[in-house]
Design goal:
Layout lengths: L1 H8 L2 H10 L33 H8 L7 H9 L1 H11 L20 H10 L5 H12 L9 H7 L5 H27 L7 H15 L6
Length: 213
Amino acid sequence: MERLRAFIADPQAVVDLRRYFGIGLPPGVMPFTGSRFEYLAGGGDRPESCDRITAEDLVAVQTWSVTVPAPVALDLLEGHLGTRLSVLLHAIPRDIDLADAEAAVVSDGSPADQAWHLLRDQPDVGWVIAGKLLARKRPRLLPVYDRVVRCAVGRPPSFWLSLHAALREDDSALHRQLLELRQVAGLPETVSALRVCDVVVWMSHRALGHACP
């Protein structure tokens, strides 16, 4: 996770966060659509819908440039797939940061891991869409891990567990650094530490012009 620490320590991180979320932009310049990922319709983890996929969740992941295939979307909203996922979501805590959670919460075989595999294995879904859907439902606990982030920080055996360990090292120093970045950039506290991390890595690596397969 040394690459991750380098991205977060870069002074450009604050500039990138403000640009992404549209803080201090001149008239006519729009924030990135992904800035609505957590906020849309009150968030995916709001109490009344935290354990089920809603139409707003499906729109929210589109702000991160992915689309859930229509048959899978309908099954999530109205079918057996949605019922199965709701059972797993109910077992995943929604009111805890990854840095404060026990490793078992994101370990292999955990409800979060089972939910990821359930989504990943649906036709034309895959690991990127699965991860973004779960990040929408548990923004404080589950990070976005897509091709850009993978290209930037590498391919550990478990990104969730590797990030969890990094956030907890040195009395949660990295987690506190993300919260400080959020404050300096002028972001509201509703933006999770994980989303600060996602955005900083994505913006920095994208700016470098890397091709990320």
